[in-house]
Design a protein that fits this description.
By secondary structure, the protein is α+β, with helices and mostly antiparallel strands. Helix content is 25%, strand content 28%. It has a single domain, classed as Carbon-nitrogen hydrolase (Nitrilase/N-carbamoyl-D-aminoacid amidohydrolase, 4-Layer Sandwich), CATH 3.60.110.10.
């Protein structure tokens, strides 16, 4: 492995609280540790700024990224540590978010329409690019749990590949991992590394988390970086944890075997992407077909 082919990454696993100040307090020492140990790219999970499923509480807390103290804290960290940070996602109001007056009380509450947004922050603290989660988690699980992410979140409409730390990085979030066409699109657009920050539930995490990520890596010949939420959260959710780094041949390079806050390190040999895609040139073999 040539040094130019090597990229040291750090995946931050969190049990994010239900407010932005506490979220930043939890994440900061883990991000600082990652930078101190030489990470060239640091990644955090979905909902890094706020784990709050209770609609009334979320409406009071969600703000624009410019006004979100956790988002701004991450930008300050990237600048201070001189390392790019992929904030796996932040629940924020889009630029069109506004304050609305409650009809029954007359008090101002924030518009519940928000986005689930990855923010790729450069080492200068500026935002390189963003990605809004396209596929929203609207399901009823067999254990009785029910989720309707679209109740308050607006889905994105574009795929994103950005340049950072010397690689082309494709972005996805959590439930997106079940939609293979998105990952194929990212790979065909040149992504050699694809990020899937997540807050997987425990039932689906145990059953599907690793196998889906390995499948997406095999199909695309790309590295998969999947920092996860884990543990019991203040809003009642329980998430799977078990953050993963998958190689382009589908092998597990690094993993956490628990759901507690932690840092997962891995060094990616970026030359393995070209080797995997040469061995299985599947990205070149698409055909137009019809259903009859």
């Amino acid at each position: 492995m040539h040094m130019s082919d090597a990229l040291k990454v750090a995946l931050i696993q969190l049990t994010t609280p239900a407010d932005q100040a506490a979220a930043l307090t939890q994440a900061t020492p883990l991000i600082e540790r990652a930078a101190a140990e030489g990470a060239q790219l640091i990644l955090t999970p979905e909902c890094s700024n706020l784990m709050e499923i209770r609609k009334d509480q979320k409406a009071l807390k969600v703000t624009t990224a410019d006004d979100d103290m956790c988002v701004q804290g991450y930008r300050d960290l990237a600048r201070r540590l001189s390392v790019p940070i992929l904030m796996g996602s932040a629940i924020v109001l889009d630029k069109d978010g506004e304050l609305r007056s409650s009809s029954d009380s007359g008090s101002a509450t924030k518009d519940a329409r928000a986005v689930n947004r990855t923010l790729l922050i450069g080492p200068d603290g500026n935002i390189i690019d963003t990605y809004d989660k396209v596929h929203l988690f609207d399901v009823e699980l067999t254990n009785g749990e029910s989720y309707k992410e679209s109740n308050g979140i607006t889905g994105g409409t574009r795929a994103v590949v950005a340049d950072v730390a010397g690689v082309k990085l494709g972005m996805s979030i959590c439930y997106d991992v079940r939609f293979a066409y998105l990952f194929r699109l990212l790979a065909k657009a040149g992504a050699s590394v694809i990020t899937t920050p997540a807050a997987f539930t425990q039932p689906t995490g145990k059953a599907h988390w690793e196998v889906l990520l390995r499948a997406r890596a095999i199909e695309t010949g790309a590295f998969m970086l999947a920092p996860a939420q884990g543990g019991a959260h203040e809003d009642g959710r329980k998430t799977w944890g078990h953050s993963l780094v998958i190689g382009p041949w589908g092998e597990v390079i690094a993993s956490l075997d628990h759901d507690r806050p932690d840092v997962l390190f891995a060094t990616l040999d970026l030359s393995e992407v070209a080797k995997a895609r040469a061995a299985l040139p599947q990205l070149q073999h698409d055909r137009d077909i019809t259903l009859s």
